[in-house]
Every structure is written in structure tokens, then in C-alpha cells.
Specification:
This protein is globular. Strands 3, 4, 5, 6, 7, 8, 13 and 14 form an eight-stranded antiparallel sheet that branches. With about 525 residues, the protein is of the alpha+beta class.
């Protein structure tokens, strides 16, 4: 019998706190006191602050007030001073309508406004606030209630609904309760029958944990059977795709994220058995440091509040983590094929070109993100850009046929930067939606010619998983120079993709090139 301790949550949060404090302008005499965007206030390499970074205030507020045994931060008055400085800076740096920017000036980013409003409203509830804070929080909340963004990002909608509800309670703005309920109903209407919530064009398990996290916080404040039923469906789905080490996600998901938000599972643990089991495995994974490291200057703010809130709302139990659901699970909507047999776990995103992972006795032995093709003329193609592969599943056989497209890795150059900044400071400031859609088409959405296709076949037997790859070329396709089955590759833009994990230490595997078509490269692998 293993006793699962909630102090694991606090340990991981506190490990990030010095980094968060380094990102903060702590000088009370500075014009940017309370700003968590170090690139702006200290390095001075950007011409505007990212409003998303003010999310850092919540970690400080929780660390200062939660009575965690042995905490060096509990009762530290300076942390609460910096929380109030962050509230002031968020207020003074925001646009007149309460919105904020994230990646470019005049962006008025919904995601940044939602994340920061949630963190700042909850921080104000914890650390105290004044009339100016309340006026600002309500202004940002009204902006959020009245605006949308292009693309379906369910996690943003969950954060928005919860941020509106918390702001309503903290500031006494009853009209925001109605706005929160409207946002919630719209989000619940998009839930897939399999339990997940859509992110752009498909299912992303990492982002689904974020959605569950924030929706559970909403339910905690306003219990509702319809919402609890939706959370139950999502949690049951997540348990079926949870990894043996307690983590979620990877390149087989629609957005390539590796998030594992934990607080929602602790809230739901007394009410949904699957949530307790998922949380147990998360704790076991934290004990092994199995989680991907999402700690760059933008992502480091996301997970510590979830860990600290999970510590606060921990549901006591003393059990060993339950065995993951055995057998085969096929989710045609998500495109996920999952099989657990004994000590072996297999999960593939068939709609994502058959990207897959395999664990044996708890050890990751395969982390395949699809094929990476390089042609003699320098052109490159990958199989994992879109979530639209042709899929067939029958008995022990599964096939994914994906178009290989050019990777989206466009970088800023001095000339492009001058043109972009000139446009953004000119007419672009009035064209928020247009700019976002253009950037999405260039760096997020998959497009381009498809002279190659990857046909990936899986055969699942009790003893062996066999993976056969064939790259098929059109007659006009350029000649291949090399082809690899890649590891951890992300070829379009997702901010939360490409964290660090030991899974990236697995090697890329070369395909055998064929001198004549239509099959120009092939590979067969066996995993016992």
C-alpha cells in the first residue's frame, strides 16, 4: 500500500517559483513594477509587454497564503506586495477596453486576456483588492464576454467562462454570471460524444486536461449536474488515453501538447471515480519526475497554480494507483487507437498520420511523430501536419494514409519584421481578427502541395506490434534524398508544443529508399 502525498504538488510548484520571481520586476520604484515579462522590462528586446505573463501573480498569491508544511513562502508579505503590484501593472498596461496583447502589438489576444483575468481575479480574492482593481477586472471581463477568436480552442473558452464567474464573485458584478453561463453553455455544446473538447481540427489530450481543470473550478463554485456530466465524460475519456507514467499527450494529438493539469481531477476525485484514479497516476508520475518540462518564459506560469490548487483541494486517500483500463479502445472521432495488454501500452493518432507511442513495462520504447522526408532539391515534407488522414480499422489491423506536406517553420527576418510592425502599428491595430486569421494560415494551418503519401499499417498481436511504412510518390514528385521515422517532431506552430522530455532521446529511424516508384521508401518495425 502506497500513501499518496499531496506535498508532491507543492514540491513541483515551489521548484518553479524562483524562476517566476526572476521574471518579475520587483523594484517598487520602477515604472514596470509588477510586470512578469522580463524580455520587456529587463532585456528590452520587445516593444510591448505580454499580458499573458501577469498570470504569474497567482503562483505568488497561493504560495504566500497556503499553509503548506515546511513551505519557505507561507506568510511572506513581500509576495503579497508583488501580487498587488502585478494587479496595478496589469491595469496600467492594458488597452483602454481592458484587453491585452500577447505575441504582437494591438493583438488584443483572447487567450492572454482569459488566462490573466482568471489569475488576477483569483489573486485579488486571495491577496485583497481596491476599487481601481475591481474596475479594471470588470472591464477586462466585459471585453472577454463580448469577443471571440478565430479557430476553436476549447481550453480558452473554459478559462474564459471560469474567469468571468470568479470576477463576478470577487467584484460583485452580477451581469458577469450570466455571461459566464452563456460561455459555458456554448462550450458544452461542442463536446464530442467520445468525451473530449475540440482544439482547432481535432482532439488534443493535453489541452483537454486544461479544459477539465478550469471547468472543474467553475463547477466547484457553481455545482451543476449538466456540467458534472460533461466533466465525467471528459475524465472517463482521459483515463483511457492516460500514459502509464501518468502523463498525457504528444505528437499524436491534434496540437502536440504535453500538458497535464491536475487541479480539476482533485476537485472531482470525491465525485468521479475515474478522476481519483487519474489523479493517483498523476501523483505517481510526479514522484518519478516523468512529466515534460514546460518551463520557458511563457509556459512556466501555467502549471504551478494548478499544482498548488491541487494541494489545497487534495482528496485524501491511501491507495496504490489503479491499473489503467486494459483492452483495446478505438475512438474514431479523435482518431485514437489505444491498446493495453499486460505490461504493454500502445496509443496512435491515426488521423494524424499514425503517430504513435509504445510503452513496455512502464518504459517508453517508441515515440514516433511520423515520417520526415528530404528531397534532392532541398524540399521537405512531413506526414503529421494535419488531422485529416484516411483511416481504416478492422480487427487487429489499422491503417492510416496521410498526405505529406511542407513543414510550417517560417521565421521572422529583419525585413519581414519591419513590414509586420509597420502594418500592426498602422491599419493592423484595427483589424484584430484579420491579422489572427492570416497568421493562423501561415504558421498554424497545414497547406501546400502533397506529392507524397505515407501509408502506415499497424498489426496488433498479443506478443508483437508490427508497424509497416510505405511512402508513395506521385509521378511528378521530386527524388527523395532521405527519409526518417521522426521522434518528437512538430512542424507547425503550437505555443505549448516542444517541451523537454526524455522521450526525445529515442533515435530517429531511417527508411529504406527505393529506386523506382510508386513506393519510394519503406520500413518495417517490430515491438515485442
Amino acid at each position: 500500500m502506497t500513501e499518496l502525498t499531496r506535498d508532491l504538488y507543492a514540491r513541483h510548484a515551489f521548484a518553479r517559483l524562483p524562476r517566476i520571481l526572476q521574471l518579475l520586476d520587483r523594484d517598487p520604484e520602477s515604472a514596470t513594477a509588477g510586470c512578469f515579462d522580463r524580455g520587456y522590462w529587463h532585456l528590452r528586446i520587445t516593444d510591448f509587454p505580454s499580458g499573458m505573463s501577469e498570470e504569474g501573480a497567482l503562483t505568488l498569491a497561493l504560495a504566500a497564503t497556503l499553509p503548506i508544511p515546511g513551505s519557505p513562502w507561507h506568510g511572506e508579505a513581500r509576495l503579497l506586495e508583488w501580487v498587488r503590484a502585478a494587479l496595478r501593472y496589469a491595469r496600467t498596461s492594458a488597452h483602454a477596453d481592458g484587453s491585452c496583447d500577447d505575441y504582437h502589438p494591438f493583438e488584443r489576444a483572447l487567450g492572454a486576456a482569459a488566462f490573466s483575468l482568471h489569475a488576477l481575479a483569483l489573486s485579488a480574492e486571495i491577496a485583497g483588492h481596491d476599487a481601481a482593481d475591481r474596475t479594471f477586472l470588470v472591464r477586462r471581463a466585459h471585453w472577454l464576454a463580448q469577443h471571440e477568436e478565430s479557430g476553436q480552442l476549447s481550453n480558452h473558452h473554459a478559462i474564459t467562462a471560469t474567469a468571468l464567474l470568479i470576477t463576478a464573485e470577487v467584484c460583485g458584478a452580477d451581469e458577469l454570471r450570466t455571461a459566464a453561463a452563456t460561455k459555458l453553455d456554448a462550450l458544452l455544446a461542442t463536446q464530442h460524444a467520445e468525451g473530449w473538447f475540440p482544439e482547432y481540427d481535432g482532439c488534443d489530450p493535453g489541452y483537454t486536461t486544461v479544459t477539465v481543470d478550469f471547468l472543474a473550478r467553475y463547477w466547484q463554485r457553481r455545482p451543476d449536474q449538466k456540467l458534472l456530466a460533461a466533466l465525467t465524460r471528459a475524465t472517463v475519456f482521459l483515463e483511457k488515453v492516460q500514459h502509464p507514467d501518468g502523463t498525457f499527450g504528444g505528437e499524436y494529438g491534434a496540437r502536440n501538447t504535453h500538458h497535464t493539469h491536475t487541479h480539476g481531477f482533485e476537485i472531482l476525485a470525491p465525485h468521479i471515480p475515474a478522476a481519483r484514479r487519474v489523479a493517483d497516476r498523476v501523483l505517481a508520475g510526479l514522484a518519478l519526475d516523468a512529466f515534460a518540462v514546460n518551463d520557458d518564459d511563457r509556459l512556466v506560469f501555467h502549471h504551478p497554480p494548478s499544482w498548488l490548487l491541487a494541494w489545497r483541494d487534495f482528496h485524501p486517500r491511501a491507495v496504490a494507483p489503479a491499473t489503467l483500463p486494459q483492452g483495446r479502445h478505438w475512438f474514431p472521432g479523435a482518431g485514437f487507437l489505444v491498446e493495453r495488454s499486460g505490461t504493454r501500452t500502445f496509443i496512435a493518432g491515426l488521423k494524424k498520420g499514425g503517430s504513435f507511442r509504445i510503452w513496455k513495462e512502464g518504459t517508453l520504447v517508441a515515440n514516433d511523430s511520423g515520417v520526415a522526408l528530404t528531397c534532392a532539391n532541398g524540399q521537405r515534407f512531413t506526414s503529421h501536419l494535419a488531422h485529416d488522414a484516411e483511416v481504416r480499422v478492422s480487427g487487429d489491423e489499422a491503417t492510416s494514409i496521410a498526405r505529406c506536406r511542407p513543414p510550417r517553420r517560417e521565421l521572422l527576418t529583419p525585413g519581414r519584421n519591419l513590414l509586420l510592425r509597420g502594418f500592426l502599428y498602422g491599419p493592423g491595430r484595427f483589424l484584430r481578427g484579420f491579422v489572427r486569421r492570416v497568421l493562423q494560415r501561415r504558421v498554424v494551418n497545414a497547406h501546400g502541395a502533397s506529392p507524397f503519401r505515407l501509408e502506415r499499417q499497424f498489426h496488433l498481436s498479443p506478443a508483437t506490434i508490427t508497424v509497416r511504412d510505405r511512402v508513395l510518390a506521385q509521378p511528378s514528385a521530386p527524388r527523395l534524398k532521405q527519409a526518417f521515422a521522426s521522434v518528437g517532431q512538430t512542424s507547425n506552430y503550437t505555443a505549448a508544443a516542444q517541451p523537454w522530455s526524455r522521450a526525445w532521446l529515442l533515435p530517429w529511424t531511417p527508411l529504406t529508399l527505393k529506386p523506382t516508384g510508386p513506393v519510394v521508401a519503406e520500413l518495417e518495425r517490430r515491438f515485442d
